[in-house]
Amino acid sequence: MKALVYQGPHAVGIEERPIPHQKGNALIKVSYSGICGSDLSIVDGKHPRAKAPLIMGHEFSGKVMEVESNQDNITVGDRVTMYPLLSCGKCLPCRTGNSHVCRMLGLIGIDCDGSMAEYVSVPTHMLVKIPDAIDDEIGALLEPLAVVVHGVHQGRFRVMDEVMITGGGPIGILTGIVMKNIGAAHVYITEIDPFRLSVCKEVGLDVIDMEKENPIEYIKEKTDGEGVDLLVEASGVPVAAQQTTELVRCKGTICMLGIQKSLTPIDLRQLNFKEITMVGSRVYTKEAFKQAVNFAPQINDVLRKVITHRFSLADGVKAFEAIHDKKQNTLKVLIKSN
Ligand SMILES: [Zn+2]
Ligand SMILES: [Zn+2]
Question: What are phi and psi for residue 233, nearest 5 degrees?
Answer without folding.
Answer: -85, 115
